[in-house]
Amino acid sequence: MKPEPIDISETKSVPSKIEMRRECGDCSMCCEGHLNAVIHGIPMSKGRPCHFLGKCDGGGCTIYEDRPPLCEAYQCLWKYTPTLPEWMKPNLSDVIMAYHEEEMNGEQVEYLTLREGNNTIRSDVLNYVLRLCLEHNKNLEYECNGSWYHLGDHEWIRFHVEKGGGEVHDGVTIPELAQTP
């Protein structure tokens, strides 16, 4: 029996609700230096791919059977959300989406991250994700042209941004932003 498709509003329980998941196939964006991690003591960060990413045809993880729990636990949103369109696969959309939770005032609050790949995020991808998050009332942290932005619950935005050492600018309207030198 084929599982019922779910929508992004049920993202929190995606891995336990879906018996099947998409396969990475020719995609290795999470290993190509777009995320920050330390894999077996060797750092991976923006512009610095995972040391264990295969260099030959087909690429892929050269230590897949011995990959650390961090890699095993990583949940690419495209893989676990079959209602996301095929063109949102990271190597096709050039973005990586992931689900996260953080504790805020004693409660777990969920949010999505959208990180640019090799290029500035395309407008069709950004539009799709922003509309999806608005429609399903999801908090979103997204990268656009190398800068980070937030959409969602104002309390979560303030908490999340301040926790990361950033500043929240209340009361700034779009026309004011457009006039900023």
Explained architecture:
Helices cover 25% and strands 20% of the residues. The chain is built from 7 helices and 6 strands. A 4-stranded mixed β-sheet has the order 3-4-5-6, sandwiched between helices. Strands 1-2 form a two-stranded antiparallel sheet. A hairpin with a 2-residue loop joins strand 1 (37-39) and strand 2 (42-44). It is globular, with a radius of gyration of 17 Å.
Physical arrangement of strands within the biggest beta sheet: 3-4-5-6
The share of residues in extended strands comes to 15-25%
The major pleated sheet works out as: 4 strands, mixed
Estimated structural class: alpha+beta
Radius of gyration: 17 Å
What's the order of the H and E elements?
A: HEEHHHEEHEEHH
Helical residue percent?
Answer: 10-25%
List the helices and strands and how they pair.
Elements: H1 14-17, E1 37-39, E2 42-44, H2 69-73, H3 77-80, H4 90-93, E3 95-104, E4 107-116, H5 123-135, E5 139-144, E6 147-151, H6 154-163, H7 174-178
Parallel strand pairs: 4-5
Antiparallel strand pairs: 1-2, 3-4, 5-6
List keywords for this structure.
4-stranded mixed β-sheet; two-stranded antiparallel sheet; 7 helices; disordered N terminus
Describe the structure concisely.
With 181 residues, this protein is α+β, with helices and mostly antiparallel strands. 25% of the residues lie in helices and 20% in strands.
